[in-house]
Amino acid sequence: MGEENTKIENGRYYKEIALVYNHLMRSIDYKGWAKYIKYLHDESKSGGDDILELAAGTCSVAKYLYKDYPKIIATDLSFQMLSMNLENSFNRVCCNMLNLPFKNKYNFVFSTFDSINYLITESDVRQLLNEVGVSLYDDGCFTFDVSLEKNSLKYVKSLNRKGKCEGIKYIQYSDYDKESRIHTNSFKIMLSNGKIVEEVHKQRIYDIYDYFNLVDECGFYVEHCFDAFTFDQVHDNSERAQFLIKKKCKHA
């Protein structure tokens, strides 16, 4: 019997990669990342514990925040990703962050692991900011991190790798095109039944000033822009940036 091969462009909904995602990210200090998000929540002075996470993936950050914020809601477009870590009982909602289904408002909205970079067009970034604006209280805060060009240039070679997890083999190919500013991660996943699935994940590596412009256009202002995982201002050698933004309406 020949191998079945399926190719999924733009990593649609992370269906197959969910099976090995925790293995791929096993070196990430999610507990430390959750601690940083908690510090950012305190820094934002947004008050309240009505917290919404966008693009939560396998909820590896939310599971550490749940103790302090039991009302946290973790969302992701991929049902498969949300279904991977079910030992905690916080609410999970499968939805597109460009079309949030919530009627309630939140004090604090956050997204981690450069999920914003997966929005390839500025139009999509505007749509996200508009959706968050509707979902935030007027004194609420949205914080998100972004991957910058220095990060792509530094790690593009090391992300060419292969491995095995619970009988599933995978090969990852990574490439960064400086002209288009598109970082592509392609995965060939060989399932235990012989089926081969290819997922292609693309990110746009925006210039950091593009974010400032888009934030301003959408009725927000940047309260802080940190060198990610610190409380230092972002600088020319930053690989990632952490934004804390708030709605202008409170200060109009």
Describe this protein's structure.
The mean pLDDT is 92. The N and C termini lie far apart (67 Å). Helix content is 24%, strand content 33%. It has two domains: 73 residues, N-terminal domain of TfIIb (Single Sheet), CATH 2.20.25; 169 residues, Rossmann fold, CATH 3.40.50. The protein is an alpha/beta fold and 252 residues long. The strands form two sheets. The chain has a seven-stranded mixed sheet with strand order 4-3-2-5-6-12-11, sandwiched between helices.
Features:
single chain, 252 residues, alpha/beta, N-terminal domain of TfIIb, Rossmann fold, 2 domains, 7-stranded mixed beta sheet, 5-stranded mixed beta sheet, 7 helices, 33% strand, globular
Give the proportion of residues in helices: 10-25%
> Please, what is the CATH homologous superfamily of the largest domain?
Vaccinia Virus protein VP39
Work out the oligomeric state of the chains in this entry. Answer: single chain
Rg computed from alpha carbons, rounded to a whole number of angstroms:
18 Å
The CATH class label of the largest domain is Alpha Beta
Largest sheet: 7 strands, mixed
Spatial order of the strands in the main sheet? 4-3-2-5-6-12-11
CATH architecture of the largest domain: 3-Layer(aba) Sandwich
Strand content: 25-35%
Low-pLDDT sequence parts: none
